[in-house]
Design a protein that fits this description.
The complex is a heterodimer of chains A (about 260) and B (about 350).
Chain A lengths: L3 E10 L2 E11 L4 E5 L6 H8 L7 E6 L2 E2 L5 H6 L2 E3 L12 H7 L9 H6 L2 H20 L15 H13 L5 E5 L7 H17 L3 E5 L3 H7 L2 E6 L2 E6 L1 H5 L2 H8 L1 H4 L1
Parallel strand pairs in A: 3-8, 3-9, 6-7, 7-8
Antiparallel strand pairs in A: 1-2, 1-4, 4-5, 9-10
Chain B lengths: L7 H18 L4 H26 L7 H19 L5 H29 L1 H4 L3 H19 L10 E2 L7 H19 L2 H11 L1 H6 L4 H27 L1 E2 L6 H14 L4 H25 L15 H15 L16 H20 L3
Antiparallel strand pairs in B: 1-2
Helix pairs in contact in B: 1-7, 2-7, 2-10, 2-11, 2-12, 3-4, 3-6, 3-10, 4-10, 7-10, 8-10, 11-12, 11-13
The chains are: A alpha/beta (about 260), B mainly alpha (about 350).
């Protein structure tokens, strides 16, 4: 059964066509890349999947749940997590709190439990603290737990965003340009990290990326978007030799 | 590790004992006792307002409205509904708390109504919605002749004692602290930081907003109920926008996002205003100033001026986003460090 099934997804911003007839079938464990020039509609797809926008047309089904029209927090709580193109951490809050906030749906207690500091509340909070610290440890951020997230170096902030996404216990992870602003050695580390975390957490991943090295290196399948339309789909090798892709990226004359 | 949290209990116990001893033996004069009661009520108001303005980062200007609802509902109960034959002890220990809680619940209901527009609007627009709510509350009461209309409502006994105020301030600070250090409170913080992302990391922002508004309004209503039973005379005019300015100054002077700050701010500002009143009364006897009709009006010069200066020079207030260690639960204060320490020691013991 596909973990994510998108059928003829179309979205307009006013008169502007951001996404047109986008289809995707994702089987569990797959790692698929989405590439395309700036403004091709890549991030819009993430925003549509996670309920930030409501699609003009089309259906998004995950694990036999219809995601269209659902609240973002509901979608996230049901196994889909994402990171952001520009780092969007809660800057003034500690690293620990950034991750614990994402545990909202994992913490099972009522508001009354919280107000009265009940034993159930205490138990749940202890459990989540332990879980969060373990997760931070895996990503080498445990010693920075009390630091405000804005004080972290760029690379650590990027990693923290991934940790925060993982804290929601996702089955499907949407990574939006994780390699942006990284140098070559950091990119190599990131590629290893993506592979490792995919195995460790049993993830299915959709990756938006401009760094061809990353996309070609880790993805099994790639979709290419241009002006909201899918212009190519296939293995990295097929994409690299597809004339329409070269045209979209480099211009017509170069290809000829 | 400097965990002196247990110190809080004896301190609070001594303070609570003092709230009985001071009026009983007249250790302080009535005027100072009254100021202390106002300090307590203002602490309740500031802490509850801080939940919305400081922690959640929204801007509520409707707190005086919640206070009005609490004041009127509780007063109507104690004057008209409750029996007057129960004697002073039973009235003070049973009927009065019921009236205060009822006032709080009525205000909480109003808070629930205000929470709904907060789903879609925020910032300046939400501030306007809450401001409008406050004005509606005032004019509704002004136009109900049955409860005195613009002339006000009276007949309450002076049921608010120093002990009750202390107890309620303690409950308010404790409950709001517990809320802040729960998943809902952290959700509120994340709404302040970035609401869109908050939703995208599974925080149910609607639930968090409803809870924050309801809890905040409840305690504002409690504050209003206590206020009505110390003043023994309330008019809708008492709860107009200027009243909000007082609470805003307390919150922003003490520090947003800090319970300690709110307590500090409420105490400082209340005492400062009284000193100002004294100073002006003294000044009013000196020739040129005798010409100014009401020196009370200076309060409305000082408070907004203070607010503006604070916004420019110390926008986060005295305690801004910091907290007294004593108020922070151990888990949030030492949890991460203890966890690392424990891990280190288990690692040292294990063979690898």
């Amino acid at each position: 059964m596909p973990i994510l099934q998108i059928k003829s997804l179309t979205h307009y911003f006013g008169g502007l066509r951001a996404i047109y007839d986008f289809n995707l079938d994702l089987v569990p464990g797959e790692l698929i890349g989405v590439i395309g020039p700036n403004g091709a509609g890549k991030t819009t797809i993430f925003n549509l999947i996670t309920g930030v926008y409501r699609p003009t047309k089309g259906s998004i089904i995950s694990d036999s749940m219809d995601l269209v029209g659902k609240e973002s927090n509901w979608i996230i709580a049901h196994g889909i997590a994402r990171t952001f193109q520009n780092i969007r951490l809660f800057k003034e809050l500690s690293v620990l709190d950034n991750v614990r906030i994402a545990c909202y749906s994992q913490l099972h207690y009522s508001s009354l439990d919280a107000l009265l500091c009940s034993s159930r509340f205490q138990r749940e909070e202890e459990r989540i603290l332990d879980e969060t610290m373990n997760l931070l440890l895996l990503f080498g951020l445990d010693c920075l737990a009390e630091e405000k997230s804005k004080n972290l170096p760029y690379g650590s902030q990027k990693r923290l965003e991934i940790v925060r996404a993982l804290a929601t216990h996702p089955k499907l992870l949407l990574l939006d340009e994780p390699a942006a602003g990284m140098n070559p050695s950091e990119i190599s580390q990131l590629m290893e990290l993506i592979q490792w975390m995919r195995r460790k957490f049993d993830l299915t991943i959709i990756l938006i990326e401009h760094q061809m090295r990353v996309v070609m290196g880790v993805c099994e399948r790639i979709k290419v978007l241009d002006f909201g339309e899918t212009i190519a789909e296939g293995t990295p090798w097929e994409i690299q030799h597809n004339p329409r892709v070269l045209e979209a990226y480099l211009g017509e004359e170069v290809v000829e | 590790m400097g965990n002196r949290q247990w110190l809080l209990f004896p301190i609070l116990l001594v303070l609570f004992a003092l709230t009985f001893l001071i009026p009983h033996y007249g250790l302080l004069n009535d005027y100072i006792q009254l100021i202390l009661i106002y300090v307590g009520i203002n602490i309740i108001m500031a802490v509850s307002l801080n939940l919305i303005n400081g922690y959640m980062g929204e801007f509520s200007l409707g707190h005086a409205g919640f206070m009005l609802i609490g004041a009127y509902v509780s007063s109507i109960l104690t004057v008209w509904v409750f029996p007057h034959t129960w004697g002073p002890t039973m009235t003070s220990l049973v009927l009065f708390p019921i009236a205060v809680i009822a006032g709080g619940l009525a205000a909480a209901l109003a808070g629930l109504i205000v929470a709904f527009p907060s789903f879609k609007t925020r910032g300046d627009y939400l501030a306007l919605v809450t401001l409008a709510f406050n004005m509606i509350c005032v004019s509704v009461v002004q136009n109900i002749e049955a409860i005195g209309g613009g002339r006000g409502f009276m007949g309450m006994d002076k049921l608010t004692t120093m002990s009750w105020v202390f107890l309620w301030a303690l409950i308010a600070a404790w409950a709001i602290r517990n809320f802040i250090y729960s998943k809902f409170g952290r959700g509120a913080l994340s709404i302040r930081e970035d609401e869109t992302v908050s939703d995208l990391v599974s925080v149910n922002t609607k639930t968090v907003k409803i809870l924050a508004f309801v809890i905040s309004a409840f305690f504002a209503g409690v504050g209003g109920a206590l206020f009505a039973h110390v003043l023994q005379f309330i008019t809708p005019k008492t709860f107009v926008i200027q009243k909000n300015i007082d609470f805003l100054v307390m919150v922003y002077m003490g520090g947003i996002g800090s319970i300690g700050g709110s307590i500090l701010g409420a105490a400082t500002y209340t005492i400062l205003l009284e000193l100002l009143r004294e100073a002006l009364q003294l000044l009013g006897t000196i020739p040129p100033f005798t010409l100014i009709p009401s020196l009370e009006i200076w309060r409305w010069v000082v408070a907004p001026l203070l607010l503006i200066l604070l916004m420019i020079f110390q926008p986060k207030g005295i305690m801004g986003l910091r907290e007294f260690g004593l108020f922070v639960p151990n888990r949030d204060r030492f949890g991460a460090r203890l966890w690392l320490k424990k891990r280190k020691s288990t690692n040292a013991n294990s063979p690898d």
